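task queued by scheduler; priority normal; single chain, no ligands, no partner chains; default sampling; output format set to structure tokens
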Amino acid sequence: MFPLAASVQVRRPPLVTMVLIGINVAVFFVEAMLPPDALEHLMRLFGVVPAYYSRPDLVTNFPVPLWLPLFTSMFLHGGFAHILGNMWTLWIFGPAIEDRMGPWRYAAFYILCGLAAAVAHIVLNADSTVPTIGASGAISGVMGAYYVLYPHARIVVMIPIFFYPFLFTLPAITYLGWWLLIQLFSGVASLAGSAAVGGIAFWAHVGGFVAGMTLLWPFLQPRRLRRPPQLDERSLEHAWHGW
């Protein structure tokens, strides 16, 4: 299921969400211009390699401090589909959370969720030497906050059936709950061995989501605790088809 639109309306432009998307896209274009060897070197320097944190002997004379990849990894992506999926998901769920927190609190919350996701991945994949990159851990935190704050919001989702886009709406609690269950199931399966991982940091997704659910409260602006207006289901579907 791929999300296309959400019913929660925002009161002001989501500037931080747009800046985050812009930074990620700009970094991706820089990556795309690098030759393969340079790109691999970049990923190993600025992506999260769990074994670097569990085996100090692997990082003798490492050229960057080990705390730096915890931040930089969330702005790197491995391909067009990777960044497109992440940035679209951030655009669907990010504006409502930014509206409830305000720009600066939201930016700090986003980074904190990304750090929590990286730590979860390191702890549960301590021997992995594969660089982990992507904004999905931080975005999972945004989704976790959305799950708590807007469980009854309506999400337009798409399932392609024989190349036909089948559209329908679901409550956010159903869509995001199903998404979390998939990540948990896949994360447990990944513990069986690297073959089950498939290159996706499922535990980073789970860690980010849980962080978003549990850490959001100090970041909410008191004057924004009243829920913003939402489109009803008919208006939501009409707005999506209008795009």
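post-processing summary
- The longest strand covers residues 154-161.
- The domain at 2-242 is CATH 1.20.1540.10 (Rhomboid-like fold).
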